[in-house]
Write a structure and sequence with these properties.
Chain lengths: 337, 348
């Protein structure tokens, strides 16, 4: 096939390296800046072997987990969005617009609040289950009818599913007498106040989702040209779509379990990446991961300053960034290229 | 033609066709609504026998019951009726002019805009300005969002579909701004604002809520009814309406303003109660057919019944928890929306 013979060009590698360096710089900034600014030298000392000072404590228990959670969730959500946009051929598909995130949240809140389930592993599985159920319903509703799956139908199905789970979640938490800031974490998503254990519990699922996405990437390039073309090129599109959907559920469910329903990363990043690297999903998938991580870390950094000294959950920031983008794409209409 | 009754006045530019069947259905719904009011007044953390409820309504029950009925339950039910009816009519107008069965004030982001206006009011003017001005703030918020929606969805005319998609985006943005406002403010306002954003008629009172909302409903509902002819012609689509001599875009804008005002004033008091504006008009059209003069009164009654019923379940089913009514309207409404999507599956 033509695609396999394509040579890796130097500038593509350099570009990826630059992106990775940007992520590392963002992580460093995320560790250093916040309500208490920490000099970068202290950050370095802390990694070299902390001395138990206040700065080092803040770094190790708060800042580092926070930066890593933002990076993992951002990467997962961006890749999940890219996969969803291909399999639904809908430019505004993402885990949040199609209700996958809200399904996962609802199941977590239900399990933790009303069924007294606890344990990180158990809750992660509950999140995956919620993401799967919600995703399947939306997918089924979006595919019925004479014309099969259309972008409009699946968007509307996703929006109604999201509204449904969102209201139930909100109602459960409010009637439970939860404090406002706790409620908000599960309504818009936040990466603050978590520890490394929570991230470690979901890493295997995120990793599995990423691997599936990378493994499928060449087939996704073909599928993105349309179902008919992919079929005539001998691709088994049912198999590709089901595997990609499984990856979406792993990535989105695991992100929600650790960071709540952070929205719009899955819409913004794939479009930006396609603009820069074209249509080859062997590049799109890794770039989505890298830039998704970068965007969420930066948004989280911004969220510390916008209402100083209070912190805004990062989900609010991503929504504010993402909506203009969403509207631009909705106005343009049409299918993904 | 004996099935129809005509109400016409050339001087006010008013013309209505009233179906006799609609009168029968409305009467039936009215009785149902009255029954629901009595049941809803009777049930709660303290049960009051229906006979005492009726006595209390005419002011002859024993003092304890009288107090509960008069000060606690009745204002809440009246607010439920008013808010439910306004939202339903707002949705009926919107579905008529957007010609999309899936349109409603909440799907289009209008309720979200109104609740943002109200949250802003709570945070900025609560201490200095009377609460009676809150509907103005909510209506202004709703108008601002609608204007933005119209502007962004405009591309040589407004396509219904783009309107819905962009509405989804705008409501997400507005919601985020509300959250930001809430976080940066004091905690006691936070709880209140969040409940407000879900939609709840908990703690409604005569002098604050009923008095504030009643004038709006009393003025806007009759105006909407008298505009029935204009909604009917909008439902024919741009080309037919235009060739029948209607000024399509201008008429649409006026009706939109009416719909937005109704939704805005309802949200100011009841919060962002969702999906009533979607469900009630559909049920009404099923019962009466598409003519708007018939759809409006039936939708209003159905909207009132849905909200009072939802609130009854919300405050009694999980005692001692008082769940916001908006949770229940969404729990019924979202599956209803999916059902509509299923029914119109070949259209999109």
């Amino acid at each position: 096939m033509g695609m396999e013979s394509r040579q890796l060009r130097y500038y593509e590698i350099i570009r990826l390296i630059i992106s990775l360096i940007s992520v590392m710089l963002a992580v460093a900034a995320s560790i250093a800046f916040g309500v208490t600014d920490i000099p970068l030298s202290a950050v370095w000392e802390s990694f070299a072997g902390g001395n138990g000072s206040n700065d080092h404590l803040v770094i190790q228990t708060t800042r580092v987990p926070r930066a890593f959670i933002a990076a993992s969730a951002g990467a997962s959500l961006a890749v999940a969005g890219a996969l969803m946009q291909v399999i639904t051929s809908n430019p505004i598909a993402s885990p949040s617009t199609l209700g996958v995130n809200s399904g996962a949240v609802f199941f977590i809140v239900l399990a933790a609040g009303w069924l007294d389930l606890s344990g990180l592993q158990a809750l992660t599985w509950v999140a995956l289950l919620g993401a799967a159920i919600s995703g399947c319903i939306v997918f089924a509703l979006g595919s019925i009818g004479r014309d099969g799956m259309t972008p409009v139908k699946i968007t509307l199905a996703g929006a109604s599913m999201a509204a449904f789970f969102y209201s139930l979640t909100q109602g459960m938490m409010l009637s439970d007498g939860k404090m406002f800031d706790q409620v908000l974490v599960w309504l818009v998503g936040s990466v603050a106040g978590r520890d490394m254990n929570q991230l470690e519990a979901v890493w295997p699922y995120m990793g599995a989702g990423m691997l599936i996405a990378l493994f499928l990437s060449r087939k996704l390039s073909v599928l993105s040209m349309g179902d008919d073309i992919a079929r005539s090129l001998g691709q088994n599109i049912v198999y590709i779509k089901i595997s990609a959907a499984a990856a979406v559920i792993l990535l989105a469910g695991a992100s929600v379990a650790v960071a709540g329903p952070i929205a719009f990363i899955g819409i913004i990043i794939p479009h930006v990446v396609r603009f820069f690297v074209g249509t080859d999903y062997r590049w799109i998938v890794p770039y989505c991961a890298v830039l998704g991580a970068f965007l969420l870390i930066s948004a989280d950094l911004g969220s510390r300053y916008i209402a100083m000294p209070k912190e805004v959950p990062v989900g609010v920031m991503t929504a504010l960034l993402g909506v203009p983008f969403f509207i631009y794409i909705a106005r343009k209409g049409g299918r993904t290229s | 033609m004996s099935k129809l009754k005509t109400i016409r006045s050339g001087r006010f530019g008013v013309s209505l066709l009233l179906d006799k069947r609609t009168v029968r259905i409305s009467t039936l719904l009215f009785v149902l609504c009255a029954g629901l009011i009595v049941i809803s007044t009777a049930l709660g953390s303290r049960y009051i026998a229906p006979v005492s409820v009726v006595k209390a309504l005419v002011g002859m029950a024993d003092p304890a019951d009288q107090l509960i009925v008069e000060k606690l339950r009745l204002p809440r039910i009246i607010i439920g009726l008013l808010v439910g009816a306004s939202l339903a009519v707002s949705g009926a107008i919107l579905q008529g002019i957007i010609r999309n069965p899936l349109a409603s004030p909440d799907v289009a982001g209008i309720t979200e805009g109104a609740s943002f206006g109200a949250v802003l009011f709570i945070f900025v003017f609560m201490d200095t300005v009377s609460i009676h001005w809150m509907p103005i703030a909510a209506i202004l918020g709703a108008f601002a969002v609608t204007a933005l929606l119209y502007l962004l969805a405009w591309k040589k005319g407004v396509s219904p579909l783009r309107l819905v998609l962009i509405g989804i985006g705008i409501s997400a943005a507005v919601k985020s701004i509300s959250y930001m406002l809430i976080i940066s403010g004091p905690l006691q306002l936070a709880e209140r604002s969040l409940t407000f954003m879900t939609g709840s008629i908990y703690g409604a009172s005569w002098d604050k809520d009923v008095i504030t909302l009643l004038p709006w409903v009393a003025v806007l509902l009759p105006i909407a009814w008298l505009q029935a002819r204009k909604v009917n012609i909008q439902m024919l689509g741009d080309d037919v309406a235009g060739s029948a001599g209607a000024r399509v875009q201008k008429g649409r804008l006026l009706l939109l303003m009416l719909s937005v005002s109704l939704a805005g004033s309802a949200v100011a008091i009841g919060g962002a109660i969702s999906f009533i504006g979607l469900m009630a008009p559909h049920m009404a059209r099923k019962l009466t057919g598409p003519s708007f003069g018939n759809v409006l009164p039936v939708s209003a009654l159905l909207g009132a019944i849905i909200l009072v019923g939802a609130d009854l379940i919300a405050r009694t089913a999980f005692l001692p928890r008082d769940v916001p009514a908006g949770v229940f309207t969404a729990a019924i409404g979202a599956p209803f929306f999916m059902f509509l999507l299923y029914r119109s599956r070949d259209r999109f």
